Amino acid sequence: GKKEPSSLSPSCAPLMMTPTVAPTISMSQFDPIKVEAFKQHIASRSNKAWYQDEWSPQHRAFVWLMQDETTQFSDTMTKEDSERLTTRYSLAVFYFALGGNKWVKKNYWLSNKEHCLWQFIDCRVTGEGNNGEDSPFKPVRGIEIEHNNMIGALPNELMFLSKLDHFYVWDNSIESVEAFAKGPDSLKWLDLSKNPLQSHKSLFRLTNLEKLNLYDTGFDGPLPVEIQNLRKLKELNLSDNQLSGTLSNQFQKMSKLESIDLDDNKFEGNLDDILNCGTCNNTLISFSSADNPLSGSLPERLFGFSALKKFSVSKSKLTGTIPSGIGKLAALEKLDLAYNDNFSNGNGNGNGNGN
Length: 355
Known about the structure:
15% of the residues lie in helices and 16% in strands. The protein is α/β, with parallel strands linked by helices.
Protein backbone atom coordinates (compact mmCIF):
# COMPACT_ATOMS: atom_id res chain seq x y z
CA GLY A 1 0.00 0.00 0.00
CA LYS A 2 0.90 3.66 0.01
CA LYS A 3 3.65 4.53 2.51
CA GLU A 4 2.84 6.91 5.35
CA PRO A 5 4.96 10.08 5.42
CA SER A 6 7.94 9.86 7.72
CA SER A 7 7.92 11.75 11.01
CA LEU A 8 11.69 12.14 10.92
CA SER A 9 13.04 15.66 10.97
CA PRO A 10 14.53 16.90 7.68
CA SER A 11 18.02 17.05 9.17
CA CYS A 12 18.25 13.33 9.80
CA ALA A 13 16.01 12.13 7.01
CA PRO A 14 18.78 11.70 4.41
CA LEU A 15 20.77 9.50 6.79
CA MET A 16 17.97 7.36 8.17
CA MET A 17 15.51 7.01 5.29
CA THR A 18 17.78 5.66 2.57
CA PRO A 19 16.75 2.00 2.10
CA THR A 20 19.48 -0.54 1.44
CA VAL A 21 17.04 -3.00 -0.14
CA ALA A 22 13.87 -1.93 -1.90
CA PRO A 23 10.69 -3.41 -0.41
CA THR A 24 9.28 -6.49 -2.10
CA ILE A 25 5.62 -6.52 -3.12
CA SER A 26 3.62 -9.55 -2.02
CA MET A 27 2.72 -11.93 -4.85
CA SER A 28 0.09 -13.82 -2.84
CA GLN A 29 -2.79 -11.94 -4.48
CA PHE A 30 -1.88 -13.29 -7.92
CA ASP A 31 -2.30 -16.72 -9.49
CA PRO A 32 0.93 -18.61 -8.59
CA ILE A 33 1.07 -20.32 -12.00
CA LYS A 34 0.96 -16.93 -13.73
CA VAL A 35 3.56 -15.46 -11.39
CA GLU A 36 5.88 -18.41 -11.93
CA ALA A 37 5.50 -18.15 -15.71
CA PHE A 38 6.32 -14.45 -15.54
CA LYS A 39 9.40 -15.13 -13.43
CA GLN A 40 10.56 -17.84 -15.80
CA HIS A 41 10.08 -15.97 -19.09
CA ILE A 42 10.43 -12.27 -18.26
CA ALA A 43 11.64 -11.39 -14.77
CA SER A 44 15.38 -11.83 -15.31
CA ARG A 45 15.32 -9.41 -18.27
CA SER A 46 12.98 -6.75 -16.88
CA ASN A 47 13.63 -3.88 -14.50
CA LYS A 48 13.41 -5.14 -10.90
CA ALA A 49 10.83 -2.43 -10.27
CA TRP A 50 8.19 -4.96 -11.35
CA TYR A 51 8.26 -6.41 -7.82
CA GLN A 52 9.84 -3.51 -5.89
CA ASP A 53 7.84 -0.41 -6.86
CA GLU A 54 4.07 -0.60 -7.14
CA TRP A 55 3.92 2.72 -9.02
CA SER A 56 6.46 1.74 -11.67
CA PRO A 57 5.43 1.08 -15.29
CA GLN A 58 6.87 -2.42 -14.90
CA HIS A 59 4.70 -3.32 -11.91
CA ARG A 60 1.59 -1.79 -13.42
CA ALA A 61 2.22 -3.83 -16.59
CA PHE A 62 2.76 -6.94 -14.46
CA VAL A 63 -0.57 -6.43 -12.67
CA TRP A 64 -2.32 -5.96 -16.03
CA LEU A 65 -0.68 -9.10 -17.40
CA MET A 66 -1.88 -11.15 -14.43
CA GLN A 67 -5.45 -10.21 -15.46
CA ASP A 68 -4.94 -10.50 -19.22
CA GLU A 69 -7.18 -13.18 -20.73
CA THR A 70 -5.30 -13.41 -24.03
CA THR A 71 -2.03 -14.65 -22.56
CA GLN A 72 -1.95 -18.40 -21.96
CA PHE A 73 -0.14 -19.23 -18.72
CA SER A 74 0.99 -22.72 -17.81
CA ASP A 75 3.86 -24.67 -16.30
CA THR A 76 4.97 -25.74 -19.77
CA MET A 77 4.43 -22.80 -22.08
CA THR A 78 5.05 -23.16 -25.80
CA LYS A 79 7.50 -20.85 -27.55
CA GLU A 80 4.53 -19.02 -29.07
CA ASP A 81 2.89 -18.53 -25.66
CA SER A 82 6.17 -17.26 -24.24
CA GLU A 83 6.59 -14.76 -27.08
CA ARG A 84 3.02 -13.53 -26.68
CA LEU A 85 3.57 -13.11 -22.93
CA THR A 86 6.79 -11.15 -23.47
CA THR A 87 5.34 -8.99 -26.24
CA ARG A 88 2.20 -8.00 -24.37
CA TYR A 89 4.20 -7.19 -21.24
CA SER A 90 6.65 -5.08 -23.26
CA LEU A 91 3.84 -3.07 -24.88
CA ALA A 92 2.10 -2.59 -21.53
CA VAL A 93 5.30 -1.22 -19.96
CA PHE A 94 5.67 1.06 -22.99
CA TYR A 95 2.10 2.30 -22.46
CA PHE A 96 2.55 3.06 -18.77
CA ALA A 97 6.06 4.52 -19.15
CA LEU A 98 4.86 7.06 -21.72
CA GLY A 99 1.67 8.17 -19.97
CA GLY A 100 -0.74 6.03 -21.98
CA ASN A 101 -3.75 7.16 -19.95
CA LYS A 102 -3.25 10.65 -21.42
CA TRP A 103 -2.69 9.60 -25.02
CA VAL A 104 -5.06 11.21 -27.51
CA LYS A 105 -5.67 7.88 -29.27
CA LYS A 106 -5.18 4.39 -27.86
CA ASN A 107 -7.77 2.08 -29.42
CA TYR A 108 -7.59 -1.48 -28.01
CA TRP A 109 -4.45 -0.82 -25.94
CA LEU A 110 -4.44 -3.07 -22.85
CA SER A 111 -7.52 -4.87 -24.17
CA ASN A 112 -7.87 -8.62 -24.55
CA LYS A 113 -7.53 -8.30 -28.31
CA GLU A 114 -4.41 -9.60 -30.02
CA HIS A 115 -1.63 -7.02 -29.81
CA CYS A 116 -1.49 -6.73 -33.61
CA LEU A 117 -4.94 -5.11 -33.48
CA TRP A 118 -3.91 -2.44 -30.98
CA GLN A 119 -3.81 0.99 -32.62
CA PHE A 120 -0.38 1.98 -34.01
CA ILE A 121 1.01 -1.57 -33.85
CA ASP A 122 2.14 -3.13 -37.12
CA CYS A 123 2.79 -6.88 -37.32
CA ARG A 124 2.95 -7.11 -41.10
CA VAL A 125 5.97 -8.43 -42.88
CA THR A 126 6.77 -6.29 -45.93
CA GLY A 127 4.52 -7.37 -48.77
CA GLU A 128 1.83 -8.90 -46.54
CA GLY A 129 -1.58 -7.37 -46.04
CA ASN A 130 -2.63 -9.33 -42.95
CA ASN A 131 -2.01 -7.59 -39.62
CA GLY A 132 -2.41 -10.56 -37.34
CA GLU A 133 -6.13 -11.36 -37.57
CA ASP A 134 -7.05 -15.03 -37.23
CA SER A 135 -3.46 -16.15 -37.32
CA PRO A 136 -0.85 -17.62 -34.98
CA PHE A 137 1.33 -15.32 -32.92
CA LYS A 138 2.95 -12.56 -34.95
CA PRO A 139 5.79 -10.42 -33.61
CA VAL A 140 5.61 -6.63 -33.61
CA ARG A 141 7.36 -5.25 -36.70
CA GLY A 142 6.51 -1.58 -36.28
CA ILE A 143 5.22 1.05 -33.87
CA GLU A 144 3.93 4.27 -35.46
CA ILE A 145 2.55 6.80 -32.96
CA GLU A 146 2.57 10.40 -34.15
CA HIS A 147 1.32 13.50 -32.29
CA ASN A 148 -0.23 11.54 -29.44
CA ASN A 149 0.91 13.25 -26.22
CA MET A 150 3.47 10.60 -25.29
CA ILE A 151 5.61 11.87 -22.41
CA GLY A 152 8.62 10.33 -20.66
CA ALA A 153 11.41 7.86 -21.35
CA LEU A 154 11.38 4.79 -23.56
CA PRO A 155 11.57 1.74 -21.27
CA ASN A 156 14.26 -0.91 -21.69
CA GLU A 157 11.49 -3.49 -22.06
CA LEU A 158 10.86 -2.13 -25.56
CA MET A 159 13.94 -4.11 -26.54
CA PHE A 160 12.02 -7.36 -25.97
CA LEU A 161 10.46 -6.70 -29.38
CA SER A 162 13.27 -8.45 -31.21
CA LYS A 163 11.65 -8.19 -34.66
CA LEU A 164 10.92 -4.45 -34.46
CA ASP A 165 12.22 -2.86 -37.67
CA HIS A 166 10.46 0.53 -37.77
CA PHE A 167 9.66 2.93 -34.95
CA TYR A 168 8.00 6.28 -35.71
CA VAL A 169 7.07 8.60 -32.82
CA TRP A 170 6.99 12.01 -34.56
CA ASP A 171 5.82 15.03 -32.53
CA ASN A 172 5.56 13.79 -28.96
CA SER A 173 7.35 14.69 -25.71
CA ILE A 174 9.74 11.76 -25.35
CA GLU A 175 12.83 12.91 -23.48
CA SER A 176 14.98 9.79 -23.18
CA VAL A 177 15.85 7.12 -25.74
CA GLU A 178 18.68 5.58 -23.71
CA ALA A 179 16.88 2.24 -24.00
CA PHE A 180 18.20 2.00 -27.57
CA ALA A 181 21.69 1.45 -26.14
CA LYS A 182 20.66 -2.21 -25.86
CA GLY A 183 19.07 -2.60 -29.28
CA PRO A 184 17.01 -4.00 -30.84
CA ASP A 185 19.40 -5.02 -33.60
CA SER A 186 16.44 -5.49 -35.94
CA LEU A 187 15.65 -1.75 -36.09
CA LYS A 188 16.04 -0.24 -39.59
CA TRP A 189 13.83 2.86 -39.73
CA LEU A 190 13.72 5.31 -36.83
CA ASP A 191 11.83 8.63 -36.71
CA LEU A 192 12.17 10.58 -33.46
CA SER A 193 11.53 14.01 -34.98
CA LYS A 194 9.97 16.76 -32.86
CA ASN A 195 10.76 15.17 -29.49
CA PRO A 196 12.87 17.03 -26.86
CA LEU A 197 15.57 14.38 -26.50
CA GLN A 198 18.08 14.90 -23.70
CA SER A 199 20.72 12.70 -25.33
CA HIS A 200 21.25 11.09 -28.74
CA LYS A 201 24.29 8.98 -27.88
CA SER A 202 22.54 5.62 -27.64
CA LEU A 203 21.22 5.90 -31.21
CA PHE A 204 24.68 5.40 -32.68
CA ARG A 205 24.67 1.79 -31.45
CA LEU A 206 21.81 0.87 -33.78
CA THR A 207 24.17 -0.32 -36.48
CA ASN A 208 21.49 -1.73 -38.80
CA LEU A 209 19.64 1.57 -39.19
CA GLU A 210 18.84 2.59 -42.77
CA LYS A 211 16.70 5.67 -42.05
CA LEU A 212 17.21 8.09 -39.15
CA ASN A 213 15.12 11.23 -38.68
CA LEU A 214 16.24 13.52 -35.84
CA TYR A 215 14.58 16.72 -37.10
CA ASP A 216 13.97 19.19 -34.25
CA THR A 217 15.10 16.94 -31.38
CA GLY A 218 17.24 19.40 -29.41
CA PHE A 219 20.48 17.96 -30.81
CA ASP A 220 23.30 20.42 -30.02
CA GLY A 221 27.08 20.66 -30.00
CA PRO A 222 29.41 18.88 -32.45
CA LEU A 223 28.06 15.87 -34.35
CA PRO A 224 29.61 12.84 -32.58
CA VAL A 225 32.06 10.79 -34.64
CA GLU A 226 30.18 7.72 -33.38
CA ILE A 227 27.64 8.40 -36.10
CA GLN A 228 30.14 6.57 -38.32
CA ASN A 229 28.88 3.36 -36.71
CA LEU A 230 25.73 3.68 -38.83
CA ARG A 231 27.36 2.30 -41.97
CA LYS A 232 24.11 0.98 -43.45
CA LEU A 233 22.37 4.36 -43.23
CA LYS A 234 20.66 5.56 -46.41
CA GLU A 235 18.63 8.54 -45.17
CA LEU A 236 19.79 11.00 -42.49
CA ASN A 237 17.83 14.05 -41.33
CA LEU A 238 19.51 16.28 -38.73
CA SER A 239 17.68 19.49 -39.68
CA ASP A 240 16.37 22.20 -37.36
CA ASN A 241 18.72 21.53 -34.44
CA GLN A 242 21.60 23.40 -32.79
CA LEU A 243 24.44 21.26 -34.12
CA SER A 244 27.71 23.15 -34.50
CA GLY A 245 31.39 22.76 -35.29
CA THR A 246 32.94 21.35 -38.43
CA LEU A 247 32.03 18.18 -40.27
CA SER A 248 35.32 16.55 -41.22
CA ASN A 249 35.09 12.78 -41.12
CA GLN A 250 31.68 11.99 -39.62
CA PHE A 251 30.28 10.60 -42.89
CA GLN A 252 33.51 9.03 -44.12
CA LYS A 253 32.40 5.42 -43.61
CA MET A 254 28.74 5.90 -44.49
CA SER A 255 29.01 4.75 -48.08
CA LYS A 256 25.32 3.95 -48.65
CA LEU A 257 23.91 7.42 -48.00
CA GLU A 258 21.17 8.51 -50.40
CA SER A 259 19.84 11.58 -48.58
CA ILE A 260 21.47 14.03 -46.15
CA ASP A 261 19.52 16.95 -44.63
CA LEU A 262 21.53 19.32 -42.42
CA ASP A 263 19.29 22.40 -42.81
CA ASP A 264 19.01 25.02 -40.05
CA ASN A 265 21.97 24.20 -37.83
CA LYS A 266 25.23 25.99 -37.02
CA PHE A 267 27.65 23.79 -38.96
CA GLU A 268 30.87 25.40 -40.14
CA GLY A 269 33.65 24.19 -42.40
CA ASN A 270 33.67 23.40 -46.10
CA LEU A 271 31.80 21.14 -48.48
CA ASP A 272 34.90 19.17 -49.46
CA ASP A 273 35.08 17.67 -45.97
CA ILE A 274 31.34 17.12 -45.60
CA LEU A 275 31.09 15.28 -48.92
CA ASN A 276 33.90 12.92 -47.93
CA CYS A 277 31.58 9.95 -47.51
CA GLY A 278 33.36 6.98 -49.02
CA THR A 279 31.60 5.62 -52.07
CA CYS A 280 28.39 7.56 -51.35
CA ASN A 281 29.26 9.56 -54.46
CA ASN A 282 27.56 6.67 -56.28
CA THR A 283 24.42 6.64 -54.09
CA LEU A 284 23.72 10.19 -52.86
CA ILE A 285 20.55 11.59 -54.45
CA SER A 286 19.77 14.57 -52.21
CA PHE A 287 22.04 16.88 -50.20
CA SER A 288 20.72 19.89 -48.30
CA SER A 289 22.61 22.16 -45.94
CA ALA A 290 20.65 25.40 -46.10
CA ASP A 291 21.07 28.01 -43.38
CA ASN A 292 24.46 26.83 -42.08
CA PRO A 293 27.54 29.11 -42.10
CA LEU A 294 29.52 26.83 -44.45
CA SER A 295 32.40 28.53 -46.26
CA GLY A 296 34.72 27.93 -49.21
CA SER A 297 33.91 27.12 -52.81
CA LEU A 298 32.14 24.27 -54.55
CA PRO A 299 34.73 21.44 -54.46
CA GLU A 300 35.85 19.24 -57.33
CA ARG A 301 34.71 16.27 -55.24
CA LEU A 302 31.10 17.34 -55.83
CA PHE A 303 31.25 16.63 -59.55
CA GLY A 304 31.78 12.91 -58.96
CA PHE A 305 28.31 12.44 -57.45
CA SER A 306 26.72 10.68 -60.40
CA ALA A 307 23.26 10.08 -58.84
CA LEU A 308 22.80 13.56 -57.32
CA LYS A 309 19.40 15.11 -58.14
CA LYS A 310 19.09 17.84 -55.50
CA PHE A 311 21.88 20.04 -54.11
CA SER A 312 20.93 22.90 -51.79
CA VAL A 313 23.39 25.06 -49.86
CA SER A 314 21.44 28.32 -49.68
CA LYS A 315 21.84 30.93 -46.92
CA SER A 316 25.48 30.03 -46.32
CA LYS A 317 28.87 31.73 -46.74
CA LEU A 318 30.08 30.12 -49.94
CA THR A 319 32.54 31.99 -52.16
CA GLY A 320 33.59 31.74 -55.79
CA THR A 321 31.45 30.90 -58.79
CA ILE A 322 29.62 27.93 -60.25
CA PRO A 323 32.40 25.90 -61.94
CA SER A 324 32.00 24.43 -65.39
CA GLY A 325 32.34 20.99 -63.81
CA ILE A 326 28.76 21.29 -62.61
CA GLY A 327 27.78 19.98 -66.04
CA LYS A 328 29.14 16.57 -65.05
CA LEU A 329 26.20 16.14 -62.69
CA ALA A 330 23.99 14.55 -65.33
CA ALA A 331 21.22 13.61 -62.88
CA LEU A 332 20.95 17.06 -61.27
CA GLU A 333 17.42 18.51 -61.24
CA LYS A 334 17.65 21.22 -58.58
CA LEU A 335 20.62 23.42 -57.66
CA ASP A 336 19.93 25.99 -54.93
CA LEU A 337 22.75 28.35 -53.93
CA ALA A 338 20.60 31.38 -53.11
CA TYR A 339 21.62 33.95 -50.52
CA ASN A 340 25.36 33.29 -50.52
CA ASP A 341 26.38 36.95 -50.65
CA ASN A 342 29.96 36.38 -51.81
CA PHE A 343 29.13 33.76 -54.41
CA SER A 344 28.57 34.66 -58.05
CA ASN A 345 25.08 33.66 -59.18
CA GLY A 346 24.26 33.15 -55.53
CA ASN A 347 21.47 35.72 -55.45
CA GLY A 348 18.06 35.58 -57.05
CA ASN A 349 16.28 32.27 -56.90
CA GLY A 350 19.53 30.34 -57.01
CA ASN A 351 17.98 27.42 -58.83
CA GLY A 352 19.81 25.86 -61.71
CA ASN A 353 19.81 22.79 -63.85
CA GLY A 354 22.90 20.65 -64.09
CA ASN A 355 22.03 19.25 -67.49
